[in-house]
Specification:
globular; 14 strands; 150 residues; mainly beta; twelve-stranded parallel sheet; two-stranded antiparallel ribbon; 3% helix
């Protein structure tokens, strides 16, 4: 691991420096959450939160705990953190998983399975990225763009 000094805006408008921890893999890749997942406008389910049922909303979502059922955020980003467990069908614009997913995943634009992530289930996505060490099992269907949309 290493720490990287990153400039951040302080509440008074000035710049302050913080140290962000990142994990560096032997191949040089880092496993850090995307900026959209760290943004303050993303809802976050903490490590001790367990949800059973249907989850819907109109904002990005970061999951650190456990979700069972269905996640329906068709226009937003869903990020599943490293120790999170999701046993649900997911519908989102973009899904990035560092954790475990069992269930169908529909990512209209992009699905990314990071090094620590796994997905077992049917996948439908616009684009797919599977990092070294990630695990994917199931049927994968790449959605083709509409002919008139180019």
């Amino acid at each position: 691991m290493f720490f990287d000094a990153v400039p951040k805006r302080a509440s008074g408008g000035g710049v302050m420096w913080s140290r962000e921890e990142q994990t560096v893999r032997p191949n040089g890749q880092t496993d850090e959450l995307p900026a959209a997942a760290r943004a303050s406008n993303a809802a976050k389910l903490g490590k001790t939160v367990v949800i059973k049922g249907e989850l819907t909303g109109s904002e990005n979502l970061t999951i650190s705990g456990r979700v069972e059922g269905r996640i329906d955020l068709p226009d937003h980003l869903v990020t599943i953190e490293p120790n999170a467990v999701v046993e649900a069908d997911i519908v989102a614009r973009t899904v990035i998983t560092f954790g475990s997913v069992v269930g169908g995943v529909t990512a209209r634009e992009r699905l990314e399975v990071r090094t620590t992530g796994s997905i077992v289930g049917e996948i439908v996505c616009g684009s797919l990225a599977v990092h070294d060490g990630a695990y994917v099992e199931g049927k994968i269907e790449m959605a083709r763009p509409l002919v008139g949309s180019m």
